[in-house]
Design brief:
Helix 11 links the parallel strand 12 and strand 13. It is built from 16 helices and 14 strands. The longest helix has 24 residues. It is flat. Helix content is 46%, strand content 18%. The chain has a seven-stranded mixed sheet. The chain has a seven-stranded mixed sheet with strand order 9-10-11-8-12-13-14, sandwiched between helices. The protein binds guanosine-5'-diphosphate (GDP). Guanosine-5'-diphosphate (GDP) binds next to helix 9.
Length: 468
């Protein structure tokens, strides 16, 4: 439900800093703002211009802090409503007093993402752009920020809008025939129609195909460390975290059973996961962990297979390497890029000449490390970005879909389009064609437009922070 009261929240991060911004939005924002802010020179709040003065507690008529204030009148504000921002010192106490003062004269404390939700309802942006705001704020590395900025500017909305526009035009034509639905669709139209429907399907399929690459630039490459216990997986992860820039993610919903750390290596984000050793015979509890590990390897972008260079290879090492190689069916069809790391090279070499040959002949990148030696992991920190680049260019993926929500809706839209094509091919009646085509159009609309589905909206905006 879209509420039309006036909301208030601190728009800057919690904590102490140079400046904090308290934001008011809604029909009373201007009035409440005028009462909260006393300008140095008499006069009202200025539209699009900062005024200097004091933040005021209107109850006690007491000055709270020196402040600047700006009015952004509807409809050209972030939310599309009258908005007032008060810039004060970045003190949690000052912020709290200004927010409390606003509430005492009629404002309500905003819910998570409520400013952005209002922006969507007022047509200032669509859902894709609201999600892009969140992605931009949370982007772990530059590639992700660039992608989010493109989406925020409407690149993806436009691409989907063009496809949807062509389908809506088709639908209008088909529906014009529904009244005469005893007849089949005129023959000369159907080949043209098929061509247009197939173009739309190809365009949507291209978006689906680019999903993995777009997700990689948004979140980072999923890099799973696997291998027998004690080969040095966690030591190597720790060493890598020491070499790169740690990225702290506070995105909700990322709680997993495996420990994940995101690190920036050469401008690319890697989400590092340690796994329970991928082995065959284990106790039941361990077996579950191993099954989960297998699944993570299967879904990974990069699998780092660690072997202990101070010991001979054993069956488990070979099994894992074979499963990840060409024709190795046991891990799964979608294979990650593989980097083999021979660790513990500070210890005497335990691998035979044959085993070295075996590793060299595998079609995988191969490096040697010592996790205990600070310099010994440098080549691992270099090898991962190289492998990432080989995995495929990220350029050109800037107009891609990177969320499951989009992928699922587009996949459903594609299914309905294929059903439409099949109906047209087999001379289905206009009424049936219209039903399928409309379903496809509706799926596409659900990606960008405000839906009446409160649950989906709550989920999307629940990921935002309070002042956004
Ligand atoms: P994991 O079970 O594969 O995660 O292995 P750990 O990282 O826990 O390491 C197991 C043991 O091997 C620990 O005692 C580490 O200190 C040791 N270790 C890890 N890497 C190296 C290495 O490169 N050289 C040596 N000498 N010991 C290592």
């Amino acid at each position: 439900m879209y509420k039309t009261d006036t909301i208030v929240a601190c728009a800057t991060p919690p904590g102490r800093g140079g400046v904090a911004i308290v934001r008011l939005s809604g029909p009373e924002a201007r009035d409440i703002g005028q009462r909260l802010f006393k300008p140095g020179q008499p006069g009202p709040l200025k539209a699009w211009g900062l005024r200097h003065g004091h933040a005021l507690d209107p109850g006690r008529q007491e000055s709270i802090d020196e402040a600047l204030a700006v009015l952004m009148p509807a409809p050209h504000s972030y939310t599309g409503e009258d908005t007032v921002e008060i810039h004060c010192h970045g003190s949690p106490l000052v912020v709290e007093r200004i927010v409390a003062a606003a509430v005492s004269i009629g404002a309500r404390v905003a819910e998570r993402g409520e400013f952005s939700r209002r922006a969507v309802f007022n047509g200032r942006m669509d859902l894709l752009q609201a999600e892009a705001v969140l992605d931009l704020i949370n982007a772990p590395v530059e590639a992700g920020a660039r992608q989010a900025w493109g989406q925020l500017q409407g690149a993806l909305s436009q691409r989907l809008g063009l496809i949807r526009g062509s389908l809506v035009a088709e639908l209008a034509e088909v529906e014009a025939n529904v009244d005469f639905s005893d007849e089949e669709l005129p023959e000369e139209n159907s080949s043209l129609r098929l061509e247009r429907l197939e173009t739309a399907t190809t365009d949507l399929q291209a978006l689906l195909d680019g999903f993995a690459a777009s997700r990689r630039s948004r979140e980072g490459l999923r890099t799973v460390f696997c291998g027998r216990p004690n080969v040095g997986k966690s030591s190597l992860i720790n060493a890598l975290l020491g070499q790169g820039r740690m990225i702290v993610s506070d995105e909700p919903g990322t709680t997993r059973d495996a420990v994940e750390e995101t690190v920036d290596l050469g401008g690319q984000a890697f989400v590092l996961t340690d796994t329970a050793g991928v082995r065959e015979t284990l106790s039941k509890a361990e077996g579950l962990a191993v099954a989960a590990a297998r699944q993570r390897v299967l879904e990974a972008d990069i699998a780092v297979v660690v072997v202990d260079g101070s010991l001979p290879l054993d069956g488990q090492d070979r099994q894992l390497l074979a499963a990840l190689g060409p024709g190795g069916g046991s891990i799964g069809a979608a294979k990650p890029a593989v980097l083999v790391v021979v660790n513990k090279i500070d210890l005497p070499d335990g691998l035979s000449g044959d085993e070295h040959n075996y590793l060299n002949l595998l079609d995988f990148s191969l490096i040697s490390t010592s996790a205990l030696d600070a310099g010994g992991c440098h080549n691992l920190a270099q090898a991962l970005p190289l492998l990432a680049r080989e995995r495929g260019p990220e350029e050109g993926q800037q107009i891609g879909i990177s969320r499951l929500r989009h992928r699922e809706a587009i996949a459903r839209a594609c299914d309905r389009l294929r059903a439409t094509i099949s109906l047209v091919t087999h001379g289905g009646g206009a009424e049936l064609v219209a039903i399928e085509l409309r379903a496809s159009v509706d799926e596409l609309a659900s990606i960008t437009e405000p839906l009446d589905n409160e649950e989906v909206l709550d989920r999307i905006f629940g990921e935002f922070c309070i002042g956004k």
